[in-house]
Each structure stands twice: as structure tokens, then as C-alpha cells.
Amino acid sequence: MKVATWNVNSIRLRIESVIDWLEKTGTDVLCVQETKVEDGNFPLEPFTSAGYNVEFFGQKSYNGVAIISKHDITDVQKGFHDDDDEQPKRLIAANVNRVRIVNTYIPNGTELGTDKFTFKLDWLQRLRHMFDSDCNLNSKVLLCGDFNVAMDENDVWSVPAWTGKLHFTLTERAAMHYVKQWGFADVYRQQNGDKKEFSWWNYREGSWQKDQGLRIDHIWVSPSLAEKCSACWIDRDPRGGDKPSDHTPVVAEFAI
DNA sequence: ATGGTAGATTGTCTA
Q1: End-to-end alpha-carbon separation of chain A, Å?
Q2: Domain of A67, in residue numbers
Q3: Would the Cβ of A12 be found within 7 angstroms of any atom in strand B?
Q4: What is the largest CA-CA distance in chain A?
Q5: How far is it, in rounded angstroms, from Cα A243 to Cα A27?
Q6: Cα–Cα distance between A173 and A170 in angstroms, integer?
Q7: What sign does the dihedral A49-A251-A150-A77 (CA atoms) show?
Q8: How far is residue A12's CA from residue A22's CA, in Å, rounded to a whole number?
Q9: Coil, helix or strand for A112?
Q10: Contact A7/A33 with Cβ under 8 angstroms?
């Protein structure tokens, strides 16, 4: 089973390239973030025509997540259990092929010391608590998405440039590490050692051309799923195409 | 300190 995560930065604008990529790569499950569309306007038809099921949870203009799968999608959860309607649409979870898949668009944080930065840290606490209460460490659990955190020095193009900056502060990394300590392995690191590759490049400053990016899109899995992982890679092709998202897909393959 | 680009939307907000 091939599982991917991709922040598409508008599913409606990117619909053709997403469908093309799915068909070209034969991906079984694609988790997308920043769909930026209300559920009533989600472009469902292109996916069903291509043989995929979709569960989505979105809002106008901002945020929005979806799980796109060749297999049946069951036991869908949208948002945290205690969220009200006003909360940003940043999490969708479901069972696919007996794997609990949690797809998240973790808050950006905007700027250190702001309410939004605090919101990001609090959100990560809630994410950890969700695994504590809902998931068994012995079951197959996969957490993926745009985490908006680079976890170690090989995840940023320049350590001096990023030290103390949003996405790479010790505070954010510690909060993210607490989530990881539930029992997750980063399958990209497991499969690729210290390799330095990125999943996001700023639209500004010619970042893509200079390969000045961050690895902030991740696939983390529970121990029984880590055992089954045979490969994990970053597919740079979509980022180099016409009118690209600022993120590119991360893919993991499992022998299940 | 500011601006550089992009998307949804149409006056700004978010990233």
C-alpha cells in the first residue's frame, strides 16, 4: 500500500495535477491539506471518475483536509472530539485497509509570541492526547500531513538561517517531539538516514531554484507499521511543474 | 524593519 501526503494549496486550482499525479504514481491513499474549499464545493467527481473514494473536511479560503483512497474509507473523524463549528478544519482521520490514518494540517503559528503561535503549541498537545485516548500502540496507526515543523538539522536548508525561526524553534520541536513520543517513527528518516531533502520551498526569494527548503511534511507510523515500511521518498516533480503548490508529495510504501 | 510570491477573494488575511 502506497500512502502519500501533499499540501496542495487549493484543491480546485490543483485538481488536474493531483489527478494526473495519482494516476501516474498509482498511489493508494493520498492525504491532502489546504484544500481551501467548503464541503459543498469540493471537486468530488474527478476523483470518483478516477476510481477513488474521498472524505473531506473543509472551509472557505483557509485550511481544509481530505483523504483520497482506492480502498474503502470507514470510521471517519472530522476535527478533535471537543471542537465546535468555529474551529479551523485541520484534521481528518479514518480507517483504510485496517490502518488508522490521521491527516493533519498543523497550525502554522504565524509569528513567535503571538496568539496563533500559542494556538499551534496547544493544538499539538491536543493531538498527542487524541492518540493517548483513541489509539492502541500495538495497532497500525499512521499520522501524516503538513506539520509546519522541521524536526532536525537535516530538515532545514541552513541551520544558521533557521535557528530560532518559526518552524524550527526548540519550543515547536519539543511540542512535536511530545506527539512523536506516543510511539511514532518518522519513516522518511528510517528509510533515508541523514539525507537532506525538502518537501516545501517558499514561493518567494527563488527558494525552489536555489533548493532552499524545509522538510515539514511528514509520515509517522506506529511500530507495527514501521516494520512493514519498505520505502519512503519525496517526489520533487510536482513542485517543478506549472503553477505548483509550494509543497511537494511525500510517499511511503508498506508491505500490507 | 520591510518586502519578496501565491491563493481566496475583492479588502485583506494567511502562509
Answers
A1: 6
A2: 2-254
A3: yes
A4: 48
A5: 22
A6: 5
A7: positive
A8: 15
A9: coil
A10: yes
- Catalytic option among A20, A39, A52, A105: A105
Hey, what's the cell of A124? 499539538
Rounded-to-integer distance, Cα A30 and Cα A210, Å: 28
CA distance linking residue A125 with residue A67, whole number of Å: 23
Task: Please count the other Cβ atoms lying within 10 Å of the Cβ belonging to residue A80.
Answer: 15
Per-residue pLDDT tens over the stretch A237-255: 999 999 999 999 999 999 9
Which residue lies nearest B9, CA-to-C1' measured? A61
Residue A200's φ and ψ, nearest 5 degrees, are -140, 135
Count of domains observed in chain A: 1
CATH label of the domain that carries residue A149: 3.60.10.10
Residue A220 in contact with residue A184, Cβ under 8 Å?
A: yes
A108 CB inside 7 Å of strand B: yes
Residue A14's nearest nucleotide, by CA–C1', is B7
Nine cell digits for residue A64: 481544509
Residue-wise pLDDT for A178-203, tens only, equals 999 999 999 999 999 999 999 999 99
The contacts of residue A161 (CB under 8 Å, 6+ apart) are none
What confidence score (pLDDT) does residue A144 get? Answer: 98
